[in-house]
Amino acid sequence: MAETSYDWTCDERVVELGGVADPAQPHRLQPLIMDCFQQIVGELDSSGTVEGLLAVPLLIARSPEPDAMLLGHPDGNAIIMTVGLAEAIETYVQGALMNPDFLSDYLPEPLTNGLSEERREFGTHLVLHMLDFVIHHEIAHDIRDHLGVLGEERGAAELGEVLSLHAIEHGDELYRFIEFDADIEALDLQMHEMGKFGEIADWPAAEVEDAFFLQMLAMLLTCQILDQAHEPVQAFGARTHPAPVHRAVLYSDTMVTSFSEHYRAEDGWFKNIHDQAWYEASIAAETHGFPEGRWRGLKMADARFDLLDPLRPVLIEFRQTIGMRGR
Question: Which contiguous run of DSSP H or E holds residue 59?
Answer without folding.
Answer: strand 58-61
